[in-house]
Write a structure and sequence with these properties.
Structural class: alpha/beta
Largest sheet: 4 strands, parallel
CATH topology: Rossmann fold
Strand content: 5-15%
Distance between the termini: 25 Å
Protein name: Sulfotransferase family protein
CATH class: Alpha Beta
Number of strands: 4
Shape: globular
CATH architecture: 3-Layer(aba) Sandwich
Helix content: 40-55%
Length: about 240
């Protein structure tokens, strides 16, 4: 059986890389050309294609981020854009051609945190591809974003900014659920039989669960929610309810 094409999205530092590895590790999905190399932050790899990133980075550069600094090119996955400000004009012809080429080789599994904002521009090319939205508890994600900002992106990310990056990325994703079929996955539950059955049934192929390391990712769903700002907790609760 041919596995279903997928698009994997979620805020940076939320488990999208390990999720893509699990989804595409055995099923034969095409990840796109020129994958980003592994590094100390993702030793197993990012599973992101340079052409996909380049398109999404250019599109995201048109949107106004509410961060105290303007995200630099190639680091626009750290943008924070209100959902009502996510709108794109006509996509250039050359960009449309690349989108069609990348999604024309099926089954594909394209992953990029920027899809939280740019997915609407890709909609004409996705057809029945499954939108897999991966998240983890905001507290852990925020701690990772703070470290990532200082060590990699050289921007001052504190807990407040990190939580806003998290909140607005998922608020934008949630605003798009009327288009296509979505699967929301709490990466903290990857070790559970329920999550494994849901994912396998959705993609129509056995995931590569042997690549998942429960020592690095996992915890109690909903942990830390009581210490979150109300606006962040509201988005987190909706994600939990959908997962």
């Amino acid at each position: 059986m041919t596995p279903r094409s997928c698009v994997v999205l979620g805020c940076a530092r939320n488990g999208t890389s390990i999720s893509t590895a699990v989804i595409a590790g055995l099923a034969g999905h095409r990840l796109g050309p020129a994958l980003l190399p592994p590094d100390e932050w993702n030793r197993g790899g990012y599973f992101e294609s340079e052409p996909v990133n380049a398109i999404n980075d250019e599109l995201l550069g048109r949107l106004p981020s509410v961060t105290p600094w303007v995200p630099a090119p190639r680091h626009r996955y750290l943008s924070a854009v209100p959902a009502d400000r996510v709108a794109f004009g006509p996509v250039p012809e050359a960009m449309r051609g690349t989108m069609a080429e990348l999604t024309g080789q099926r089954p594909f599994c394209l992953k990029d945190p920027r899809f939280c904002y740019t997915l609407t521009a890709w909609e004409p090319y996705l057809d029945d591809a499954l939108r897999v939205c991966v998240f983890r508890d905001p507290q852990s994600a925020a701690r990772s974003l703070v470290r990532f900002g200082s060590e990699v992106s050289a921007v001052p990310i504190d807990r407040e900014i990190a939580l806003e990056i998290w909140r607005l990325a998922y608020a934008s994703a949630l605003s798009q659920v009327s288009r296509g079929e979505w699967l929301f996955v709490d990466v903290d539950t990857f070790g559970s039989a329920r999550t494994r059955k849901r994912l396998e049934a959705a993609i129509g192929a056995p995931p590569a669960w042997h690549l998942f390391d429960a020592r690095r990712v996992g915890g109690e769903p909903g942990r830390g929610r009581d210490d979150l700002p109300a606006s962040v907790r509201e988005v987190y609760d909706e994600l939990l309810a959908r997962s």
